[in-house]
Specification:
It comes from Actinomadura rudentiformis. This is Carboxypeptidase regulatory-like domain-containing protein. This protein is α+β, with helices and mostly antiparallel strands and 150 residues long. The protein has two domains: 31 residues, no CATH class; 112 residues, Sandwich (Immunoglobulin-like), CATH 2.60.40. Helices cover 19% and strands 45% of the residues. It is built from two helices and ten strands. Strands 1, 2, 3, 4, 5, 6, 7, 8, 9 and 10 form a ten-stranded mixed β-sheet that branches. The chain is extended, with a radius of gyration of 20 Å.
C-alpha cells in the first residue's frame, strides 16, 4: 500500500465515523471565495464601546479603527434595529473609494456605497454577524478590513 491509498482509506474511515458537517464545508468554501490576496489588509487596531451618559436611553456606540500601511478606516457602529447596524465611517487620509460590505449571507455588491470628498461613508442597514469592508480606491488598489462581529 502506498501513501495515496493510505490517505484514501483514512479519509473514508473518518468520513464514516465523524463526517464533516455541511455547514463547516460551506463556511470553508465561502472563506476561499472571500479571499483577496491583491488587497492590502487594514487590521483592527482599536475596538471599544462608548457608554451612554446616565439617564439617556438609546443605543450604544461602538468605535472601530482599522490600520493599514497607507490607509486607516474609522467606523462608528450603532444599532438601528434589532438585527441591523448602521456603519458611519471615514478613510484617513480622505480619498474617493467604492465601499462594499463583505458579509457571509450576502452576495457581492448587495451592500455598497461611495465615499464623499472627505472620505466619509454611511451604510445604514448592515446585518449583524461577521463583516469585513472592502474599499476600491480611485488608483485601482484595494483595501480590506479584517473580519469583525457586529
Amino acid at each position: 500500500m502506498n501513501e495515496d491509498e493510505l490517505l484514501v482509506r483514512l479519509r473514508a474511515a473518518f468520513q464514516a465515523l465523524d463526517p464533516i458537517p455541511e455547514d463547516v464545508l460551506a463556511a470553508g468554501r465561502s472563506a476561499i471565495t472571500w479571499r483577496r490576496p491583491d488587497a492590502a489588509l487594514a487590521e483592527l487596531a482599536d475596538d471599544h464601546n462608548r457608554p451612554l451618559p446616565a439617564g439617556v436611553r438609546g443605543v450604544t456606540t461602538r468605535l472601530l479603527t482599522f490600520a493599514g500601511t497607507e490607509l486607516s478606516v474609522e467606523i462608528e457602529v450603532t444599532g438601528t434595529e434589532r438585527s441591523n447596524r448602521e456603519l458611519t465611517g471615514r478613510l484617513v487620509p480622505a480619498c474617493d473609494a467604492h465601499v462594499r460590505v463583505r458579509h457571509l449571507t450576502y452576495a457581492h455588491d448587495v451592500l455598497s456605497t461611495r465615499t464623499d470628498k472627505a472620505g466619509q461613508f454611511v451604510l445604514p442597514r448592515v446585518p449583524e454577524g461577521l463583516v469585513s469592508l472592502e474599499f476600491h480606491l480611485s488608483d485601482a488598489t484595494s483595501v480590506v478590513t479584517s473580519w469583525v462581529r457586529l
